[in-house]
Specification:
heterodimer, A: 208 residues, alpha/beta, Nitrile Hydratase, Chain A, two-stranded parallel ribbon, two-stranded parallel sheet, B: 219 residues, alpha+beta, Cyclin A, domain 1, SH3 type barrels, 2 domains, 6-stranded antiparallel β-sheet, 8 helices, 30% helix
């Protein structure tokens, strides 16, 4: 039995590695890894900085607003989302293989990862707690309409609800429908309307 | 493995509780846990698939209790011990073995933005031709491996239609076990909600799942 065989995992479980106080446990782990020269504390700071300031749903909102205002961009986005998103400067970890799915009058798309919590970091940032919750992961595939209703979104029976379970390394972004009454808004103004939840598919975009 | 992580379709796992104006992290330790997991990955001793597998081996009751970043720490410590970066004793005491040599971190602060922006694509150039084409009817295999797989239980032995081809992607079932990347065609398969959940589901609704060729058989 190799050390990678999961049947040998029992050896790992003789002692709990889950901290009772995660803050203390993580602090101790960080100092251990730094002391051993396994991680650079400045690199840790840079990683935190990157995910606090460089990525987040405003990136995805810019992608959506561009698609709403530039038909050629939208066509590129639906054909090769990774490349079209990179045009706006967003790329990388957990966004290496992007797919954009478009909401239409006949299809409403919703994103989930039932097996862990896969999420398109470069365009949406790190996932919210509810997206990672057991409730969302378990329910969204079996009763998506009930889940959407709890988010305040009623999808008429005539519209197909299409759930995307992110089981591979493809990462999904919903292109929501542009709300009526926004014809005079600029791309920047439109971007401010686009919410994280609308790009996961649990909300629509409101005109104001 | 048929673990509790494979949650699709389960009942009774608590309420949805969206939080208005949620911060990126709820406590500084979550940010450090995230950063540690990310930085230790630069040693390239285990893959993301092995990282997921390690978390799946968390005892089920602990998995359900633990928060997301507690799971990450569990995965980090388990793999760091297994691959010799730290010992179990060091993990438990928080003190480095004085005899252990000090090493040089493979990831510096200057490298971070570039590494994050590049990511690590999982597509590979392989000779293997796709067996299926868009529109083909398939049936997912009825498999229950003890090891890591990305074919969810709720989608096993179910009929579906190939909706898209994505080229060859690294196969997690072997990659997680360090048995090779085994890159092979990845498809998006569309399932009717009623084929997955029975007549109570909406006749119109569908679930799309990304599945590797080894999970699929002709219908």
């Amino acid at each position: 039995m190799s050390s990678h065989d999961p049947r040998s995992r029992h050896h790992d479980h003789d002692h709990s590695v889950v901290p009772s106080d995660p803050a203390l446990r993580v602090k101790a782990l960080e100092s251990l890894l730094v002391e051993k020269g396994l991680v650079d504390p400045a690199a840790l700071d840079a990683i935190v900085e990157y995910y606090e300031h460089k990525v987040g749903p405003r990136n995805g909102a810019r992608v959506v607003a561009r698609a709403w205002t530039d038909p050629a961009y939208k066509a590129r986005l639906l054909a090769d989302a990774t490349a079209a998103i990179a045009e706006l400067g967003y790329s990388g970890r957990q966004g290496e293989h992007m797919i954009v799915v478009e909401n239409t009058p006949t299809v409403h798309n919703v994103i989930v990862c039932t097996l862990c919590s896969c999420y398109p970091w470069p365009v949406l940032g790190l996932p919210p707690v509810w997206y990672k919750s057991a409730a969302y992961r378990s329910r969204s595939v079996i009763e998506p309409r009930a889940v959407l209703r709890e988010f305040g979104l009623e999808v008429p029976d005539a519209i197909e609800v299409r759930v995307w379970d992110s089981t591979a390394e493809l990462r999904y972004l919903v292109l929501p429908e542009r709300p009526a009454g926004t014809e005079l808004l600029t791309e920047d103004q439109l971007a401010t309307l686009v919410t994280r939840d609308s790009m996961i598919g649990v909300a629509r975009v409101a005109a104001s | 493995m048929n673990g509790v992580h494979d949650m699709g379709g389960m009942h009774g796992l608590g309420p949805l509780a969206p939080e208005p104006n949620e911060p990126v992290w709820h406590a500084p330790w979550e940010a450090r846990a995230y950063a540690l997991s990310s930085a230790i990955g630069a040693w390239r001793l285990w893959t993301g698939d092995a990282g997921r597998q390690q978390i799946e081996h968390m005892p089920a009751a602990e998995y359900l209790r633990a928060s997301y970043y507690e799971k990450w720490i569990y995965g980090l410590v388990g793999n760091a011990v297994r691959h010799g970066l730290i010992t179990r004793e060091e993990a438990e005491t928080g003190h480095a073995d004085p005899a252990a040599p000090k090493r040089a971190p493979p990831l510096t602060a200057e490298q971070v933005p570039g590494v994050m922006a590049r990511g690590a694509p999982k597509t590979r150039s392989v000779e293997r031709q796709s067996i299926f084409q868009v529109g083909d009817a398939i049936r997912t295999r009825n498999i229950h491996p003890m090891t890591h797989t990305r074919l969810p239980r709720y989608a096993r032995d179910k009929p579906g239609i190939i909706a898209a081809l994505h080229g060859a992607h690294v196969f997690p079932d072997t990659n997680a076990l360090f048995q090779g990347e085994n890159a092979q065609p990845l498809y998006t398969v569309r399932f009717r909600a009623r084929d997955l959940w029975g007549e109570a589901a909406s006749p119109r609704d569908t679930v799309c799942i990304d599945l590797w060729e080894d999970y699929l058989a002709p219908a």
